[in-house]
Design brief:
The protein is about 40% helix and about 20% strand. By secondary structure, it is an alpha+beta fold. A hairpin with a 6-residue loop joins strand 2 and strand 3 (about 55). The longest helix is centred in the middle third of the chain and has 21 residues, at about 275-295. The chain binds a DNA duplex through helix 4, helix 9, helix 11, strand 9 and strand 12.
Length: about 425
DNA sequence: TCTGGGGTCCTAGGACCC
DNA sequence: TCTGGGGTCCTAGGACCC
């Protein structure tokens, strides 16, 4: 008898409830809030550099535009169907996300912000609630207060809530809320879920499982636990148990500090000269230092990397990276950029067309908890960075920057169709032509 | 012509030590 | 000079997520 069947026979408890709230087509929905004429019209949002399609409205999905497709490949369908195109505007999306999360916090004390457009709510102690009704109310409130449509899935583990959420999103009759609280409903849902749609089963594992004729989440739950552990490791085993209703991935209520932090970009055009690479690496180094300062962290080491364009088969390829130790844990832009420049000079090779570069900081820790003996200039270093951050906060990013970041920045990323930062900029709102 | 960015965790394998 | 095996730690790379 399969493991899940044994659990079901024992009438294993399903009293624990976790909700997953997921914003529908989040970036596209954000653009619509301030441009209601776009309701019902197809929209896509592009990745950095206007490279790929990363969000599609329901109407755009219907046209057959694929997730992650390069913009230039979809351009024909887009133009033909008058699809509205936006470059990504993360200041806007980040701010709307915060509003959604603040609204959610009114409905449960246990909230885990999982990503920019998803959150888990713990419904422990909600035994007397009619969860279907309660979640519909949450959904209507988010729509009314923030303007974002969401889908809600509820079940007894995170992985099952994900499945419930998928069903709520895909089937109109659920009206945005799917609660799976009986084994009957869960089994039905597992049978409807393709294996590649299971949270934790990615591309490689689903190909592997399909070889064994495991095509749905239900098929997966019929397997032997030992076999799964042997072939898919502890993460595979966790996914299995979660699908069987045994919670293995707890709610993470206190967000822990980052362990690494990265800023990297593709260039809008190819770079060949070391001079331009130095400018870009300086810019990314300064930006990544600023990011960890915002979170009160310092870094111990870093990595600088460069790549040529691996899509271009005709050109000769080169990629390299270098790990660099910082003299002591720091978040000082000047020190980080200086070290990044030493790194890029070591790995740069002449005669290649570079497409992307980046800086990653490692060994992050709380600035307040490190008291180095070597950072003799800590106080002045902190006060300079504080001042820079305050000025840039008030007058805009990069008002003050390092000379090595450059002025022209001919390589800077392309954002041709970006909407105004409606909620975070004091500039007069500009009407977007549709 | 044009193909994103930022994370986490696990695992295998090498280096080193006893 | 040759020989064995086991443990730990670190790192790079892979797989996953959004």
């Amino acid at each position: 008898m399969s493991y899940i069947k044994q659990l079901q026979n024992k009438h294993s408890s399903l009293e624990n409830s976790i909700a997953l709230i997921d914003c529908n087509n989040f970036y596209a929905s954000c653009e619509r809030i301030f441009n209601p004429r776009l309701m019902g019209k197809p929209i896509v949002v592009l990745s950095n550099n206007d490279g790929c399609i990363i969000t599609r409205s329901a109407e755009a999905k219907k046209l057959g535009i694929k997730m992650g497709e390069p913009y230039f490949k979809a351009k024909k369908i887009i133009d033909k169907n008058n699809v509205k195109v936006f470059s990504s505007n993360y200041s806007l999306y980040g701010d709307i996300s915060q509003r959604v999360m603040e609204t959610l916090a009114r409905f449960a004390s246990d909230v885990e912000i999982y990503s920019i457009d998803e959150a888990f709510l713990g419904f422990n102690g909600f035994q007397n609630y009619e969860l279907q009704t309660y979640c519909s109310y949450i959904r209507r409130t988010i729509k009314k207060w923030v303007g974002i449509p969401v889908s809600i899935g509820v079940s007894s583990t995170k992985t099952l809530s994900k499945i419930a959420n998928n069903l709520a999103k895909k089937n109109k009759e659920y009206d945005g809320v799917c609660v799976l609280k009986s084994w009957l409903d869960i089994n039905e849902a597992l049978k409807l879920t393709p294996i590649e749609d299971v949270w934790g089963i990615g591309r490689r594992l689903s190909i592997f499982l399909q070889k064994y004729n495991i095509n749905t989440a239900y098929d997966f739950t019929q397997l032997d636990k030992g076999w799964i552990k042997k072939n898919m490791g502890v993460l595979g085993e966790k996914t299995f148990l979660e699908l069987c209703g045994i919670s293995c991935i707890e709610l993470d209520l206190i967000p822990s500090d980052k362990k690494s932090c990265c800023v990297s970009r593709s260039f809008s055009k190819k770079i060949e000269k070391i001079y331009d690479l130095e400018e870009s690496v300086s810019t990314y180094g300064a930006r990544v230092a600023e990011k960890i300062r915002e979170e009160g962290l310092v870094a111990e080491s870093m990595n600088v990397f460069i790549l040529t364009n691996y899509f271009n088969r005709k050109e000769k390829q080169y990629s390299n990276s270098i790990k660099l130790q910082l003299p002591y844990p720091t978040n000082n832009s000047i020190k980080i950029v200086k070290r990044a420049l030493e790194g890029i000079r070591k790995i740069y090779r002449e005669g290649y067309s570079y497409k992307k570069a980046g800086v990653i900081l490692y060994g992050l820790s709380r600035a307040s908890q490190t008291k180095g003996l070597l950072d003799y200039d800590r106080e002045s270093s902190e006060s300079i960075m504080n001042t820079v951050d305050r000025i840039n906060g008030r007058y805009g990013n990069s008002t003050i920057r390092l000379a090595s970041e450059g002025i022209k920045k001919s390589w800077i990323m392309k954002r041709e169709s970006v909407s105004p930062c409606y909620t975070t900029s004091f500039d007069d709102l500009v009407e977007v032509k549709t």
